[in-house]
Amino acid sequence: MKNLTITAVVVLTTFSFKPVEKVKKEIKIASSKIVWKGYKVTGSHEGNIAIKSAFLTFEDEKLSGGEFVIDMTTISSTDLQGEYKGKLEGHLKSDDFFGVDTHPTAVLVFKEVQAEGKYSYSVTGDLTIKGKTNPVTFTISLYGSKATATLKVDRSKYDVRYGSQSFFDGLKDKVIYDEFDLVADLEF
């Protein structure tokens, strides 16, 4: 009788707990994009930044993690043309802004993911820009094999100083606000 009881406990325990299924889904870089938008006293600029590599991790079909490597050398403007477009892109790539010769990539690593609804998650992650890492929190929404997310990034935390009131006085209408937006439309 004792062996039968032990066998029953082992069988019930084995079948009661199914293993967590972890799945890593690569982001399809060709059909995904990240748009940036920066603001200044006199207006705004926007453009694109390419994803170098990225994935989302799921456990039992729920988002549980992710990592993005962004190719900062691809930062481009979509709201300007010609000479002004080239000047802005060159300036954004310079040490005044993102210093892409020294820091060609930025990295976002998900640290904590909490479900907020059926298709929505609150994510806290570590964002590294110019070798400086700071926590960021944002919402990501999933729909089938697509995801969208919007991040507000405070550039002053990453030593991106040009035109920032956090570092310089008397800029008046030359101020470029510290916060910029990143909007990601992803396919996996």
Write the layout of secondary structure elements.
Elements: H1 2-16, E1 22-26, E2 33-40, E3 43-59, E4 62-77, H2 82-93, E5 105-115, E6 120-129, E7 132-143, E8 146-154, E9 176-187
Antiparallel strand pairs: 1-3, 2-3, 2-9, 3-4, 4-5, 5-6, 6-7, 7-8, 8-9
Describe the structure.
The protein has about 190 residues and is mainly beta. It is built from 2 helices and 9 strands, in the order H-E-E-E-E-H-E-E-E-E-E. The chain has helices at about 1-15, 80-95; strands spanning about 20-25, 35-40, 45-60, 60-75, 105-115, 120-130, 130-145, 145-155, 175-185. Strands 2-3-4-5-6-7-8-9 form an 8-stranded antiparallel barrel. The protein is elongated and about 65 Å long. The protein starts with a helix and ends with a strand.
Characteristic terms for this protein:
188 residues, mainly beta, eight-stranded antiparallel barrel, 2 helices
Number of β-strand runs: 9
Mean pLDDT: 91
Q: Which strand order spans the largest sheet, edge to edge or round the barrel?
A: 2-3-4-5-6-7-8-9
- What summary fits the major beta sheet? 8 strands, antiparallel, barrel
Structural class: mainly beta
- For the CA atoms, what is the radius of gyration? 22 Å
* Shape summary: elongated
Order of helices and strands: HEEEEHEEEEE
Poorly predicted regions are none
Concise synopsis of the structure shown:
The protein has helices at residues 2-16, 82-93, and strands at 22-26, 33-40, 43-59, 62-77, 105-115, 120-129, 132-143, 146-154, 176-187. The protein is mainly beta and 188 residues long.
